[in-house]
Amino acid sequence: MNYYRIIFFIVFLVGCNVRGQEVLSLHEAVKIAIENNYSIITASNNLAIDSIGVSPGYAGMLPTLEARITDNNSVQNLSQTRSDGSQVEQDNAKNNSLNYGVAMDWTLFDGLRMFANLEQLKQNQNLGEVELKQVILAKVGEVMITYYDLVQQQQQLTALDSTILISKQRVELAQNRFTIGKASKLEVLNAQVDLNTDQTLMQRQRELYANTKIQLNEQLARDLKTAFVVATEINVDESLLLPELEADVISNNPQLNAERINKRINELDLKQVRAARYPTIFATTGYNFGRSESSLGFTTSANSRGFNYGFGATLNLFDGFNQNRNEKIGRLELENAEIAIAQQQQELLSILSTTYQTYLTNISLIELEESNEAIAKENLDITVEKYRIGIIPTLEFRTAQLNYINAKVRFSNAKFQAKLSEIILRQLSGDLDI
């Protein structure tokens, strides 16, 4: 069995192993995460709460209407001296007063505070949308990173499968050579030790692979025992440009947009504070029914009903200079919001620049490690044939074998690291494909 037959056999085994399992694509994994992830659901509910609050009534622009009823009763022992000098006494005198009706209160003007409040409610909704986007980008990014980590682990499992088969072939060849007297027992033992080492590495890699699958199922908020396989290749976008990414960060990054919205909210807070300098004008109206009964007095019963209305106004004339203090605090908070925007933008652009340099390095490493893998493969092919006919020592064979497996692992890891950099760059720019 030569090297190419080994590879064919590995592919055949892998195909048989994954048959019947769910083939989970990245697109499907992202879709499941958006639908099921607990953090995303919580952020969606918070946005729904903010959306419900956007209304003129919540901002205090509409009148309030309420029904009222009051029923007072008393039983008393009374003694009265009237203006003509006569006296009247009665024990257990009953008195009853019943009033009911509807009343409406409406603030007509409050220094435009209600309009600022409505705009603030809208900004809270916008902030909720940005925060939801930020959570989605973070969680989708985590899913993508874990997904591609599984892809590279699958590739490493395939590489370890190939090296184990080669090690088994080496043990068989060494045993045959020992049997016919062309090799020592030491060569057989060395080959067996190397095979055991490769099998140990395989067990560790399978453990890591199984644990990473559990981690992905957790991120997808589904049964942790769900069996699946992922794609076999990692495709890296090598066309990302730093100026375009910087422009996207400034315009699309959800953290930066959240700071901008917070600044607008601070502006509206200050506007509401300044509204206290103006009078508050309100109107009241209602329709009431009344009935009273008294066992003793000039009037033993009375009934009333009617419409009432009125207007009022309040104006703060002096509050210990608290108005000035509140406005000064509002202006300082607004200044802090502007500083937060500048600071956040600088931090994001700094992270973007360093990540982009890592991205470029990883792209170049992909080409280098791909070349190294091809060289290591060619060297292993030649070494296998030389070992078969017994013209090289076992140490040289093992060195070629390890060089090949290490080259495959480094090539797979280089692609994964480049993809990781790409995902982070797209997260920062708010342009992650979801």
Automatic annotation (TrEMBL):
What is the superkingdom listed in this entry's lineage? Bacteria
**Electron transport in keyword set:** no
> What keywords are annotated for this sequence in UniProt?
Cell outer membrane, Membrane, Transmembrane, Transmembrane beta strand, Transport
**What subcellular compartments does it reside in?**
Cell outer membrane
Against InterPro entries, the record matches this protein to:
OMP_efflux, TolC-like
Family membership noted in the UniProt record: Belongs to the outer membrane factor (OMF) (TC 1.B.17) family.
Q: What is this protein called?
A: TolC family protein
